[in-house]
Design brief:
Strand 8 and strand 9 form a beta hairpin. This protein starts with a strand and ends with a strand. A 6-stranded antiparallel sheet has the order 1-2-10-7-6-3, with no helix packed on it. A two-stranded antiparallel ribbon has the order 4-5. A two-stranded antiparallel ribbon has the order 8-9. Helix content is about 0%, strand content about 50%. The chain is globular and about 35 Å long. It has one domain. The protein is mainly beta.
Amino acid sequence: MTIIRQGDVLVRRIKKLPANLQPAEPENGRYVLAHGEATGHHHSFAMSDRVAMFREDGSGGGLFLTVTAAAVALEHQEHTTLIVEPGHYQVVRQREYAPEAPRRVED
């Protein structure tokens, strides 16, 4: 299993995409996986025919990727650029324990 971690974003390889996915729209020529809460930075891929991003229909949370043909670069303004090889992936925002309730890790 391939797992890629960049700050608060975890990209995990899966065997196939789930059913009922809808294409996700790019933002300013980029596929954005997550926005920074405080800085305006983002985890993203440049828009390309090598990467497609999808959201679960109606769930409001599931984010998935397909990388085809050649690897693509996962970029962030404050983290090292990571290479994502061809395949299907699920994107997970990492959580941390807090006494009141689990919460998303903020990057």
